[in-house]
Protein 1
Amino acid sequence: MSPDRARDHAADMRLSNAITRMPRPFTKGHLGNFQQAVPWASGDIFDLLQGTSGSSPYLHGLIVKEADWLESALDDLDGALPAVFAALREGPVDKRAADLRIAKRRVALLTALADLSGAWQLEQVTGALSDFADLAVQLAIEATVGAEIRRGKIPGATEDDIGVGAGLVALAMGKMGAGELNYSSDIDLICLFDETRFDRDDFLDARAGLIKATRNMSKMLNDLTAEGYVFRTDLRLRPDPAVTPVCVSMDAAEHYYESLGRTWERAAYIKARAAAGDIKAGEQFLNTIRPFVWRRHLDFAAIQDAHDMRLKIREHKGLGGPITLDGHNMKLGRGGIREIEFFTQTRQLISGGRDPDLRVRGTVDGLRVLTAKGWVPEDASDKLIEHYRAHREVEHRVQMIQDAQTHDLPRSPDGFERLAALSGLNVDDMKRDISQRLEEVHTLTESFFAPDPTAAKPDEDEDTFGENLIARWPSYPAMRSSRATEIFERLRPDIVRRLKASARPDEALVAFDGFLAGLPAGVQLFSLFEANPQLVDLLIDIVTMSPELARYLSQNARVFDAVLGGDFFAPWVGVEKLTADLTEALESEKDYERKLDASRRHGKEWHFRIGVHLLRGLITATEAATQYAELAEATLSSLWPVVVAEFARKYGPPPGKGATVIGMGSLGAGQMHARSDLDVIVIYDADGAEMSDGPKPLSVRPYYARLTQALVTAVTAPMSEGRIYEIDMRLRPSGNQGPVATSLTSFKDYQQNQAWLWEHLALTRARAVAGEVALGQEVMAFRDELLSQSQDRAKVLKEVSDMRDRIAQAKGDGGIWDFKIGRGKMQEIELLSQAGALLCTGAPPANVALSLKSAAECGWLDPDTSQHLAETYKKLWALQCGAKLLNGEQIDPEQIAESSAQFLCRLAGASDFQELEATLRVAVETAAQMIDQSLQAAEG
């Protein structure tokens, strides 16, 4: 750097060049002493020091005591504190307590002057104070832990362990954890130690040594000496502080939070940070308790918990009532700092379990990311950030006057005049500004915490509407807790009003009653509805139209979380994005069972989304069929490597080339409905290997058989989050009599030499959906080659005709509302389309319409027949897809709700239910006759 540029850079670093505001002296009583101490001060620096000294007795004392250091520090604003920190690190341990106090004076003085002059913004001020706190705690731990190590009181620890506190970590909580320390803040620490560093026999001695070190660390920071103090240190946020020592093992803390942790502790851990000592162990601990802090589901019950905490604090501190400035607590009072922090933290708790981006520590950062994610409107966020910064500056000036740990505004006119002078403001303007900000913060945050009491007023005739059903509600399982009942009583009038406003109120009430009766618990869901009333309308739509989806919701109510994610009604993301998202979710879980539960949560939410989109007409039945199939494929594709990895821990990696999962039936065809199970076969290639290589090696055949069973269990086992799908493996070679996993060699031999025609027909719908890609491609290439071989058309269609007759004899016709079984219905059309795929050259398409088109192009199916069968199949599939979503069973025209009937008519393009039935009968009968003619012509 040239001399001129160096001089310019040095000038930029001077505080005098960054002043944007100026305090004024409230009193000139100390100015003679002040002027003697800083003869070097002139211009704006003199005015700044004079205004500060004349309004703050505490800062006056610091200026006088640190005048010599201050002169050079003000000429190097950016470098002064790093120099203080470096000197501390290099200082001797035996003088550390005194050096820390000197450093504290200098940090306090420089940050105050940078703050009062406007040279630093709030985040720079709080960041500097927090950085010093981190360093102070680290150096105090090194000193006290080092003393215990040298005394031989921490078994196995050496001088090399001093820097990491011999496994002791100080978790910074509250404002220190967030890097937001206020000017005269205490520091909240939770001190833990990593018990795994010590042998079992040494645990008690190590624990005793670290407890003593923690106490001495706290004293080094906290005790008031002739040099002052460093930080008031509070260790009471640790688990159960009344009965636990000042330093707790991580294992004990983990067990406490898992079993007894409370909502306020969850909120506290939002800002927790490993600040000093064994940082790595501290970060691992915070990751371990992440599920305690960040719930997997949206946690709107946290709103009530936070509201209750606020009320208790107000009651305990006597801070209720209207806002008055005299003595108002800027932190805990109405409209104060804590209101903004609670508002931010509670919203983070609600959804941070689902969205890691929300897991930020700072209040301003929290509000910004909540806005970016759509949880807080931008105008509200901007106002709260502005008010938060203004509140914190007022808080700092209140504390600067006497270095008092207070948040209370003055109670006297002189007190307000002094505060205004230190702030460089007119007292009336300052009071008006503070009052307006407090009122606006209270208005913005209170409605979030406290429900509008007027919303619970019942309609005059509510008692006469469905009184017999409504009278049963208090006895339902969802109401077993008093808290659930309390929330629901606030919701009930609005729910009843919405039910009455629906197209068919009585029908809607009965449907809602069925949902409520099946709900096993209510607190979380009712809290969700209270915070998001629009979800009640969606629920009423669903339960009225689809009893099946209503039953699903009763047992899986947390899928409502997905509706609030912001993209619930966005276009379909496709199988690749589904797979990538689920893979990422599974990788974030370390425990195998949690991975399986994560797969279930993912599957249920997307399953629910598809159903809602279909009910609301956002997608067609054909699109829903594709989406259900892609969801199933993504689930299998993501789960397979997880199952393989878990299985390999005991039995070793898959021997040979691994295995592929082949989708059959509706999965293979890429066309599923809400109740479809998964037809799969597993094919492996040992490639000459005989055994697996693991702790418990297995020969190839039992290895892949057990691996396949592990996959089936991973998908079908009823975990805490339920199951995803049922799996059907009867389409494997030899059906239920064959092995659950088939070698590639055996599969090829069976299909070439032993398979029945129906098995080759089934292969027309096969496709690889999971497992080793190269092996899947090899299997599908073999399938294509096998099925492209020349076939005897008459023989194939004769067997198809015979199969059709056997199915009719075994299952009957099924009636007009059975869309799958019977003459001219889906199963018969599928059989004919599969025959078309088998008889025509080229890769056989799984799609029914394409297969029928191929049959027409090959010349054995009439084009008009092909078109009619394709159209009939599409209509039947749409009705099948809709019926499975509505009630999971066959439609009963005598019992079907009007809204459900309208839904089916929409899917089939009919104006009413009578037209639907009439057109359906004609289409099916025509299809049956066309199939008869096609098969008879072939036989002839």
Protein 2
Amino acid sequence: MDKEIKNLAMQQRTGKISWLFILLVIAMVLFLFSILGTISSDRHIPSQNAIIHDRSFRGAIISADNYTLSASRKIYQAVIRGESIDPDKKEMFITLFGIYSGIPKQTIRKRFSEKNGKGNIILSKTLNAKQAMQLKALAYKLRQLKVFRSIKVRSGLEVLYGLDIIEVGESRRFPLSDVLSPVLGYVRKKSDGHYTRPQGQKGLERKYEKHITSKKDGYFKGKRDVGGNIIHDKNSIEKQRVDGMDLYLNIPLAFQRRIEMMVDTMKKRIDADEILVGVMESNTGKVLALASSERYNPSHITQSDIAALNPKFAEYPYEAGSVLKPITLALALDKNLVTPQTVFNTFNGRMKIGKRRTITDDEKFPSLNATDIIVHSSNVGISQISWRLTGKEFRDGLLAFGFARPSGIDLSRDLPGRIKSERLLNHQMHRANSSYGYGMMVTFAQLFKAYSAFNNDGVAVTPRLADYLEDAKGRHYVLPPTVGDLHPIGKKAARQIHEILKEVVMRGTGVKAQYPGLEIGGKTGTAHIARHGRYVREYHSSFYGFANDKEGHKYTIGVLVIRAKKYRHYFASKSAVPTFKNTVRILVEQGYLKPDPTVEAKVSKDIPLYGDKSTEAEVAAPILPPLPKEKTPPPVTREKPQKVIPVPHKKPKKRVISPIMDEAADLF
């Protein structure tokens, strides 16, 4: 019995010792973790070492003529501890801070009142580097004037606070306001909790985000002296920052701005919703201008700007209308199915398909050759040309020109649009409908690219806004386009269409685009706008073509007018063509095109050079003169938008129908 009692007592003592040992081990572990945490944490005690951060910058976007279009700058925050200001000198602080910062005194007083003059008061969050430097100097002077007083903190210590100027981020500035918007794009703020940086959201700012964004921050680290300054010695460490690369564009600011001013004037003259204009070198794809009349200031975006944020050049699919006719003919010419002289029966402008459907023309001709089908913009004629192609050949040809796929233009979004399926295009009505640009969706960039083939021996070049990227060492980097150049047709067919487009300007719907001493060609298009699956009496008017001189300068030019509301100005000949002509005029004035002086000399002084009897002062003005007043029209065809009537239901009467809006089955 005694032995059992002794064993029990021994077990109890062993257990107590074991628990005591475990508690000691736990205590030791906690102690070690506490020491490790103290070593690794930022302690609020004077340190022998100091570090100066040098945060990297986002790269700038620069025009071809070396103007900065967007760039970054550091922003600072001014903070004061409310209780630290001597009440008798508070008014002096407010006055001096207002003078040095440029912030109204009423605003500063409001900041104090919002926090009842206590705690940390943020006086400004958007100070630039110059203001920050001035306020740092002010902070020193205020200490000398004893504006600040010591206050007791929770620990019981007396602490003297002052005016703190803290680097809090990087902001994006757009010094030229709305120039090159919406192509340039905009940014939003992205914060990691301590530092705010800009992040591209649209346009070039978004497209080249990976390359122009800040790369690596730098710093200088070393021991400090009693004044808190870092000692430069062999033990100090310096790491250079790596900024984002600068983006250089092909677009010269002077030319871009002239085009923007012109489209602003044209928009008012014809009361349009928006006008888009693009100019690029036909053999290189370098874009010299990409202008919209709907622009905004990326630094101050308002509610009314939301509709303009998306660049319509590559994000606005629409039905092209008659500007697609030269492309249809090009496909047939390239396969030797027709020649420019092949004659077609055009049935005096009315051709039946089946029992109930009729394709019509505005002008009535019993017959037209392939050239005149384009010159007079005949729906009847181009429909028959499309029938020489199979549905597969027609569809494959459109794909070869770049339709229903991204154009490759270097913007943030590049929508593909759509074309009909091969099954539908095997039907005559659907193939005819698409041959003159209905029942399919295209973008400005796609047509812009496609038309370059007619001025470049069959090679459709990809529009390129950016020229190159440059790093801090001056090295240049050129990024290949996401979609390369296309070869949709051969040289012979391209040159044939080139000559036909010149005929359109000489005697067709594009006569107002003529410019003495230059080679001008192009095609008009006036197409209905569809809303909620129905065509309405609103129109897209367009003109795509080229302007060349004898010195080898060759430019592809595109114009799209959205909803011109002035009476009868929805005709492309009254809206898009004059805009094209004014664009050519600016190319001449800026020295990009040089008209043949011998041809110019033969032009009578009584014939207005710009389609308007402008005075010399008006010609030299930065804004183009008013559009010419309508006089007796020349004896040429004027393209009209095709009438659209829905497919009949039961017991329909005979109807005239041209473009037909197809539903989901037609989607690419």
Protein 3
Amino acid sequence: MSGQKFQYDESGGTFFYFLLSFLVLLLIPGTYYLWPRRPKQDPGQLSKECGCEGCKKKKIILQMNEPWKETKALFTKFLIILGWVILLLLAYKVSQFDYEMANFDPFEILGVPPGSPQSEVKKAYRKLSLILHPDKETGNEKAFMKLTKAYQALTDDEAKKNWEKYGNPDGPGAMSFGIALPSWIVEKENSVWVLGLYALVFMVALPTVVGMWWYKSIRYSGDQVLLDTTQMYYYFFHKTPSMALRRVIMILAASFEFYKKHNPEIIERHSDNEEVPSLIKQLSNLGEKNKERPLCHLYSIKARALLHAHLLRIPLNPETLEKDRQYIVKKCPYFIQEMVTCVNQLIMLAYARRIQRLPSIETIENCMKLSPMIVQGLWEFKNPLLQLPHITEDNLKYFLAKKRQIKSLQQFAQLKGDERRQILRNLSDSQYNDVMKVLGNMPYIEFKVRSEVIDDENPTVYTAGAIVTVTVSLTRKDMRTLFGDNTVKEQTILDDSKAAAGDPSEEAAEEESQTVKKPAWLRQRKGPKKSNKKNTNKKSAPAKSGQQSQPGNVLQHQQQQQTNTPNSRKKEDGKESSNKDPARDSVKERLSDVSDSEVDSDRSDDEDSSHIKKDSAVDDDDTEWEKFQQRISKREKVLEGRSNLSHEVHSPLFPDVKQEYWWVYICDRKSHTLLTTPAHVTSLARFEEVQLRFTAPRWPGLYTFTVCLRSDSYIGFDQAQDIKLDVKEAPEIPTEHPQWDISDEETAEDVDAADDHSEFTTDEDISDNE
């Protein structure tokens, strides 16, 4: 290692290699991702765009939101092009270094052909030395030294051997390790500047950037919502399990993103002291006298007043309150999605008995209903036809004539062209064309539901405690496909008119929240009628063994399945009598004999049907293979990531581009409970499939659940379909598996826990209660 050298780059050659590789690593991905591209536009996009005044104003607002968009794009292009120019120059300079550092060739240096005699070599050396000698005017010391080495390599025997062996007439050179940085970095004259640069980058800039990132990350959730806002949502939704729509608006307006102390983007003006009180006088049921914090804070009251003005479509001062309205409304869809998540988690915590108050299904649905209201700037009790351009309250009387009674956009789309034009006869041709453009681009969703028990021998048979998979198929079409088509099947629209008509005030909502009762399937199951007193113990014992099923919780489903075994029922029958009952053993023996006979009968049935299974084995294999392929494709789609592009929403009062999103969930309308986590569908361009899973009730019977589809962008497009599950009793588990036996102590704990829990409400229970 004595011959090795380790030094900075004196000539600067290797430093250019470093710069070249660094620029390549930056420019290639930077050009691909950062080069400004214009979005692909449909050639007929202009013909599809609405020309109403609201859409024109929205275009101006979107352009004002990005005033430097074109300048930033030009600057980005300039930087990328400049980087590529520098890269080409560096590549040319490095290529020159490579040429100079090529293999030593004395014939080429002397300008003689290979194998020339020494006389010609000497003659060429004398001729070139007269030109390159340092004492001459045209001399070049570096080139002369190279010429001398070439002459020695062809004339001196030892130098010739070294050249042939090592490629250098001087023999093997010392190994050299260099740093790809110029030597002026370590020079004494530049030490102050170098240290200053290091201190600026590593002691000031880097800690500042990391600190800013960390401070922001600990304040915001994954959806870029302040954690303080999320905690506030949890508090109020837990405090008021059954929350009215107006109170949801109050909670939304109290988000800390609208508070200047938490968000420096908020602008507080002196004119607010006059404009906000005058706006409040125009609004009713605002609840400005509420004393709860932060609902009583000035920022919350201002945001609430702006949201009410937005829903009532009240014009505001374009220089002050209108700008505040646009900022608040633009943020609302993200906060509403966070509200839905918070209420859903509270419901799941109530199922798990972590909290006592169970939020009702109306609370989470009110949060969902608020989203299309904000996007369209319209109260839910208003006519959905007002979402069309140029349609005002005065035009509704033509829709609600005695002969027509057009109340939905779907009904209006199914009319013939002459009838639609007759209804809108007071509009000009251009205005009528705008109405038809917007109506034709609105969604028509084909909503199909299929339920099954996956990975089961008979997927259409639902047993107690089984995991039910509901596959929801959504096919999105344009409403223009319904123009003049009266044969389209009428969709089952969610009816929220009753809840909207009541519209309880804040005080009424609070009183209602205090009297919220547990749903029927969470209360203790009723015993049999008086006429069956003798069989009361036998029927109530298995009832106590069942615990509440949490939707989608497979682990708890397995635990519940263990508690529903024949052994557990045998031991619970024994628990109802004294522990020292002498008939206890005989009862166990009888029950075990019955279970054994049932198992034997099941085996005989399996043997009888074995030949049928063999005949259909090929078809079953094909079906299983198709299902397997579908699961693989779905997993790959999930791994690719969730897209946020579907179809642009016509929303002239919403100050940003909005895409169509949907919520899909399953609930029990009879007990007002949520069964599955709402799936947020954000990529419904044409077709989308959503799978929802929940645990079947623990009690055999006929149950009716509702699969709901809600839009977060349009009013009047919500749909619902009922699914009926005929739940059978779970098959008994063979007793020859001792690891599934449950001790008497565990069964006793399950019986005590079952006193506070029961199962879903069957149709028979509802009829009995009525």
